[in-house]
């Protein structure tokens, strides 16, 4: 329990603050619109669903401001570099960027649902009040003219009894952009499941770029000003709390109350998303610039089990262990970029990746390099970007666990350790490595290229952790995984179970690769 708190206190605190801000913004906005005299007459038609719609809209703006930040890879790499002297707990939070991205997306979905449901009720109220002929305040407000020349300003967007909700939805800026954003959001969320990402990565890649339509739609969503409130001048002349009860005498010359005038609320969403969008545009410009730098393929190796190794050079390329790059092959797809872990060591004069056939794109890439009499396909590279494995040398004892092609992040680590031992690097804290990879009928390991091949099999994790804890009773042990969630769950539990309550004794810290 002590280790769990030590590892997760910042994550829990950050999550609580984020959830608290969502609750605070929603409640504060709800109460604001419930009490605001500016929307007194609007509430007479819509009731509390107006406040629900506006409160959820504010939370949507807040979370839409955050959604792009966790996927700014260059920003995260910069923060990781500036936090090199920070505590291990603070640095580990950067490894949860995709988890936070997903949580923010789920929160956007929640508030989108609230916003849509609230507006469905709003349009129903607008429609019923427009159809009403009972002379009630709501019907009088709904009948206010849409013709500014007559001196009146409208409150109900449904202009006549013959106007349908569907017509207003698809002919107004707010309605049309709302439909577009909702469709884009549904497609992005449903295509981001683990199954689709692993089996149909192209579907995930293309549909996720619908975020452009979501962001553009959000920026102009409020331009139409469908939700309207009383103008300040009109409130000074005829305050709603004084004049609402005498609405039947608004047209009397002897009455001090006049028909209220209304105006649309100016759009605010763009103010929330402007800075993150500019930051993300700069991120994409930097990615594009780096991707256009020439990549020279120095060696191509075909390994068993359809594994392709590419050794490359690129001017100014500098890497650390465990980092990854994004690769594009224009002859296969101009827009698709796929992440691959670097398998070379920083001490080597090239950088390399290993590609396993796991979908249409990778299969086409391997097939292109297998053709003997064809020119080598052009490759574009963006990166490198940091991961949890960069911290491996900060631990006295490291346990490296890889499943399938998941062994590739640790090839770089193992080779780098070998080079550091050869050079007698005194800054190397790591004294002991655990290892797991694949056996093939080759003289050397297919990934590391070393004669000492790693063992194949599924360890008994309780026995492994118990042995490590006994052998290193006062060490800080880093456990690094590149593999499936089920394995991550087992290893995380073991890290918590075998960490001592005494911080001076053995402590296990779990780290998982995330792309």
UniProtKB/TrEMBL annotation:
One of its GO terms (molecular function) is oxidoreductase activity, acting on NAD(P)H, oxygen as acceptor. One of its GO terms (cellular component) is membrane. It is a multi-pass membrane protein. CDD domains: NOX_Duox_like_FAD_NADP. It catalyses: NADPH + 2 O2 = 2 superoxide + NADP(+) + H(+). Residues 284-391 form the FAD-binding FR-type domain. The chain crosses the membrane at residues 12-31, 103-121, 167-189, 209-227. Gene3D superfamilies: Nucleotide-binding domain of ferredoxin-NADP reductase (FNR) module, Translation factors. Keywords: Membrane, Oxidoreductase, Transmembrane, Transmembrane helix. It is found in: Membrane. Its main location: membrane. PANTHER family: NADPH OXIDASE, NADPH OXIDASE 1. This is NADPH oxidase 1. The gene is NOX1.
